Structure formats: structure tokens, C-alpha cells
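Recap for those who missed Tuesday's class. We walked through two folding examples back to back. For each one, the amino acid string is listed first and its predicted C-alpha cells come directly after. Nothing is annotated here on purpose, so try labeling regions yourself before you check the end of the notes.
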Amino acid sequence: MAKGLEGIVVSETALGFIDGQQGRLVYRGFDIHDLAEHASFLETLYMLWHGELPDRARLEALERELAGQRRLAPGVLEVLRGLPSDANPMTVLEASVAAMGAFDEEAGDNSREAELRKAGRITAKIPTVIAAFGRLRDGKEPVEPDPELRHAANFLYMLRGEKPKEVEAKALDTSLLLYLEHGFNASTFTCRVIASTLADLHSAVVGGIAALKGELHGGANEKAMRMLLEIGEVDRAEDWVDEALVEHRKIMGFGHRVYRTEDPRATHLRQMSEDLSKALGDPKWHEIARKVEETMLDRKGIHCNVDFYCGIVYYTLGIPLDLDTPLFAAGRIGGWSAHVMEQHGDNRIIRPRAEYTASRDRRYVPIDER
């Protein structure tokens, strides 16, 4: 028995490939290093949904389409206003996407054409939900999306109320690209299981968000940054790691279920963290992270993963810590949608078996005789 389905092949996919031994990640044949260096989030999203990179006209059409879908239906905004200000932002995201489905006239249409349109709407609206809730809980009104701004820049504008610098928008955009697709991870597999019942895209995405909520999956970027805040200073980092290892405490942002070498996404987020820190004049957190990373490699030979430096990038951008995992979802929504469409395109309900471990011969005893 393979506990946790480790190593078990449950289906086929043309969307993503991971070589954990070599540290490779491929989206539909494109190496993640090539995409992270040259492509945008929406350019890569189009490729994931359609199989080929878009020409300029198709990319601009996708950008216009999503820009026109960013506003929330009044009913969805009312849901946000009615939630407590201390609600878990991932719970807020679950409720909001479920509400989007209730207001979407195509919610129950699982044809590819309808699912592409729904995927575009959900992708466009999730950043609006995150930014709106981030402001509402602080007693501020949501900022209307700006159709002239690109996807990542618009999120930062809606959250802050002012337009971001180009280096900030670029960093966020690349981080969303790096989170876009990663094989049959827990949240993506959840989406596919739900989709295999012929449930709709919104329902599958709500399930994906629920799976992503856990700290063993999507919550690690926030916890990694909280760890760095606890360390506080570069000269404390090495001793802090040594003490944590002696006490068998988990060092957040290190190790991966699949990769046995450096997570290729971490390569770009490390550089992004350094560039952003220099551009904004705040290198402290990057320097602490580098010392933690060097110490972990020296003591345990364990590499950092995608979440370690992503937490620093988001913190440097001024994003509240508990919005880190919702932003993970804002990137992964493109992959979830692609997997739902792939599942619906060649469906068989996912129904694994369990190995039964209890007795098979017990007999009922009347209640008065117990």
C-alpha cells in the first residue's frame, strides 16, 4: 500500500511534468526557467488553457477579457460585506467563489467553451475578492478595478489604492506564473476528483481552495515569513536554526514531497526577493533568508521550496501575511481550471479503494444486553 498515494499514477495529463530528481518543472513542454524569465502570467495561462503560446492579438484579447470581468456581482460583494472581519481569508475565498457560481448563468454548463469563459471570470475576480476583503476588514471601501492596468498591477492597486511600481507588478506577476501549475498536488487532485463527478468548475475550485488552506500545502508561505519575523536579525539566524533543529521544530519553507534538489521555482523567487529588496531599499529580510537557507543546506542538506522566498516577496510588497495563501490560489486557479477542463474532456469518476484494517465478523448486540 502506498500511503498518501505516493508514487501511484492515477491518470494522464498533458498540462505539467515534474522531475523531482533533476529539479525540473515543465508546463506543456515549456521549462519553468524559460517561462519565468520571458513570459507573463496571462501569456502562460493562455498556453496552459489552449496548448500554444498566444500571438500578440490573442494575448491582448485575453487581457481585455479578464480586465472586463474583474468587478464583483453586487451579491458577491454583499457576501464579502457580511463576513466577519476576522474570518480566515481562505474561508472568505471559498465563500466568494461559491457565490460567484450562484450568480453565474453558465455555472452548470460543462462544455469546454463555457468552462473557458467561466475560468476567465473566476481568474479575473479572485484578486478582486482578496483585495476587497483586505480593505473591508480594515474599515476601508474596496477600490474599483482599473481596466488600464494589467492583472498583477491591478491587484496591488486595488489593495493599496495607489498604482504600484513596475518592479513590484513584475514580481507579483512572476510569482503567480510560478504558482500556476504543479501536477497532481493535493488541491489540484481535489479539483479533479470533484470534476470527475461532473460537478461544475466553481464547485471544483471551491474544493481546491479548501485543500490549499492547510499549512502542509498552501499555508507555508505565510508561516515561512512569520518564522523570519521571529528571527528578526541576520546575526540571529544561524543560532535560531540550530536551536530549532535540536528541538525538532519544523523549519518552514524547506523540503518538498517531490523535489530532491532545489525547487526550480525557488531559484526565481530568490532572485526576485533580492532584486525587489534592493529596488525598494529594504534588504534585511532577504539577508536573513539567505542565512537561514545557507544554514539549512550546511546542517541538513535540505533545499528551500517555492514558499520560502515567496513569503518575503509578498511581505516586501506590503501584502498582509494572511493574504499570502489566497494569492497562491490566485495563481493556481489557472492550473485548477485547466485540470478541470482536461478531466471533463475525458472523464471517468475517480474512485480509489482503501485497504480495510478492522474486523469483518462482529455481531449486533441488543441495546439492553450491552
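Example two. Treat it independently of the first, because the proteins are unrelated.
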Amino acid sequence: MTKLDWYIIKKFLGTFFFSIVLILSIAIVFDLTEKMDDFFENQIPFKEILTDYYLPFLPYYMNMFSSLFIFISVIFFTSKLAGNSEFIAMHASGMSYRRLMVPYFISATILFGFSFWLGGWVIPKSSAKMIAFTDKYVDHFTSENARNVQLEIEPGKVLHIESFQRRSNIGYRVSIEEFDGKTLVMRTTADRIYYDSLECWHLDTYTERHFDGMVERLERGGRKDIVLPIAPDELFITAEEAKQMTLPELTHFIRRQEERGSSNVDAFEVEYHKRWAMPLGAFIMTLLGVTMSSRKVRGGMGKNLGLGIVLTAGYILFSTVSTTFSVNNVMSPFMAAWLPNFVFLAIAIPLYRRARR
């Protein structure tokens, strides 16, 4: 590490965090203006607004637009270095273009670790507060009733509940089917199902049919205690829940759903892959930014900065569109999360080779 390395690292990180403070301050002002009426109408204490909404707001949007911040930061200060002919002096001293990239990638590694920590552990916990606050005061979207729930709770055991109420933990018109391969061996129906405690449920007015070839054995009763490896909250899990899970929790949830044979985990798998793909995008955005702005051009940094904003907006839009493709089963969750990185890496590598020459 030389003084020049420390100089570039300080410029990179300093510009990055300065741009974050500037842009997020503007975003908060606009968001506060939009939601001011809701805050006054519900008479929300200022402390609750600050701790449950705006403090979680900052890391969430900081991480979401980290690619934009990194790209703008690199182009801004690198164009300034090039404009002052500092790169010419570096090359004249014997520093190669590859060696010049070292402090940039050290900075990108620091930002990768910061973004990975935010996305994997900090943001899921803070997002839960922000979503709960929004649901309570601004936009009520949490449902207290689940309808037509169907999932495989164990290999070969399928649960269907026509209607389930969150507050009372009671479901209506229930069926539980057990299969041996593709053969139905038992089917239990009930008017109601109650949740008692950990994996303990009760059936009301049930009918149980056992099938053994052409022979059927019937059993009826008023109440039956059963064990189901599921909790009521799992009946209400939506794609929004993925954002509130830490990386270990998300990994465990996906593994558990796959063990159950559930096919409705695409949104969770996309979120898992994005937890890796978005932080690693720091290296791609750094490489792309340096190669675009390390030459002295007529007109200053305006052209590079404008092109950089357009490319980064395209990256963010591409990430959003590819996620939609995965949810609609057009592409795999892995490709949906990683495709923007692959495309922009394919753009950055030829530009890097050209810049070296």
C-alpha cells in the first residue's frame, strides 16, 4: 500500500458516502412531503416515525441503490483525476493500468462487505419495523384471512384449508391427503381445524378414510388431535416475507420448503441470490466506472456522469425486470438475480481491455 493507494481509496469512499448522504437526504424530504398528511392524521409520535420508519428507511434504500452510488462516485472522482492529468503522471512513474486498479478494488471489497452485511442481517430486521409501520399507519396491506391454502407439509402429505383466520388460529373446511408415491392411502376432512401449540392441532367433526386397494375403511369423530409440522404464520407467508428474513433464516426457509416439495419458493430463491449478486455488483460497477472515466475527454466529466447514470438506471431496471421474469417462471431464480451482473460484466471487460491499450 502506497500513499497513492490510500489517496485513491479515500477519494473513492469519501465520494461514495458523501453521495449517499446527499441523495438520501433528498429522498427523505420527498418521502416526508408525501406522507406528512398520514403522519398528522394518525397523530404518530415523532420518535416512532424516526425509529420505526426513517432509521430503517436509510439502510434499505442505501443498499438498493448502492450500484448507483458506487458508479457515480467512481466516475465523479476518476474523471476529476483524469481532467487534472493525474493519470498521466501515474503512468509516467511506471504504474501500470492493472496496478492502478488495485486501490479501486480494495475500496470495492470494503463496500462489498458493507453491502453484504446490510443486506444479509441489518436490513431484514429493520425492514420488518418499516413494513409494520407502513401497514399500521400508511397502507394497510396485511391480511387477517388466508383463503385456499394448499401446501405439502411433509413428503407425501398435502394440506388444504379453504379459509384460515389469523387472530383466532382457526381454519374451516380442511382436508389432509397422504400419498404413497402417487397412490392415495388416506384422506382426512374436517369442518374446522384449531392450532394449539407447537405442531399440535385439533380437528373438529372429522372424517378419516383409509384406502387399501379396493378396500376403504371409514372413521368419523367429533374431535381429533393431530401433529402437523407447520405454524399458522407459515400459512400467511408471501414474497414480502423474504425481505424480512436474515440470510441464515432465508437459507433455512428455502431448504425446509424444498424438503416439503413446495414449488412456490421462486421469490425466496431470487431474494437469496440477490443477497450475493447485488454486493458483488460493486466490483463490476467499479470496473465499468474506471474504464469509462480514466481518459481525459473534452467537456469534462458531464458526459461520463450522464452516461453513468443512464447505465446504472438500466442496471437497476434490468434487475427488477429479471426478477419479474423469475416470479412468472420465465427464467430460473439464479439467472434472474445474476443476469444483470453477467450482462454488465460482458460490457465492462472489453472496455477494460480497450482502456489498458
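Answers for example two:
The mean pLDDT is 88.
The chain has two domains: 3-139+266-356, 156-229.
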